[in-house]
Amino acid sequence: MAFALASRKAASSVVCAAAKKTKAAKPEKVASKGVEFYGPDRVKWLGPYSAGSTPEYLTGEFPGDYGWDTSGLSADPATFQRYRELELIHARWALLGALGIVTPELLAKNGVSFGEPVWFKAGAQIFQEGGLNYLGNPSLIHAQSIIATLAFQVVVMGLAEGYRVNGGPAGEGLDPLYPGEAFDPLGLADDPDSFAELKVKEIKNGRLAMFSCFGFFVQAIVTGKGPIENLTEHLADPATQNAFSFATKFTPQ
Asked: Is 233 helix (H, G, I), strand (E, B) or coil?
């Protein structure tokens, strides 16, 4: 009897001690994925060989800073701030532009009717008889005057930029690059760690989109076709339908 009571008491003590230990142990805080893109220990442009190649003024404070500035364009803080704004705004336009360039062609190849799906030919429809119907539907936007269309775009874009930079009906004292509030209806910036990571994703995809748009421009000049048609032809016959076949056409005689 005494042995049983002692054994039961010992077992109870072990269980209580284990429970206290489990309760006292706090779950480890998971580090934000954005940490690897900021600060002195961030990923840099030469990877493990970046030692000594990163300027002192590139501290990893801003998204997309991989420590590369061989031309010293960011040495002056005021110039750096201006270039950051220009890059981000152009990146956002390039993201929209790249999507707008490939989407009509993709839809047209899948049975959706467009007046002209190729991006560099679409705008010319406004000069044809009857003007330009947005998405081929006259009940949406029926543009007939290039001057009126240009004026409307300048006014609307000017107002939007004014609100972005100076505040206004959308909110007072907004950050000119990441205004938030009415400009973030989905609340993507509510969590600071997620927001820091999204900033990096935005600028990385934006830089890729800027290069993509430049490639679309060159393709249009060289081939006279849209990017989806170029891709389709290349996949069908990669040996002859490639950049080298077109490069030979511009060889000096």
From this structure: helix
Instruction: Say whether 42 sits in a helix, a strand or coil.
Output: coil
Question: Are the C-beta atoms of 27 and 34 separated by less than 8 Å?
Answer: no
CB atoms within 10 A of CB 213: 20
Q: Mind listing the pLDDT tens digit for each residue in 101-143?
A: 999 999 999 988 777 889 999 888 888 887 887 766 777 777 8
Which pTM was predicted?
Answer: 0.77
How many of the other CB atoms lie within 10 Å of CB of 117?
Answer: 21
d(CA 161, CA 213): 23
Phi then psi dihedrals of residue 22, to 5 deg: -65, -40
Distances (CA, A) of 98 to 95, 130, 131, 223, 240: 5, 28, 25, 18, 26
List pLDDT tens digits, range 163-210: 777 766 656 666 778 877 777 889 988 999 999 999 999 999 999 999
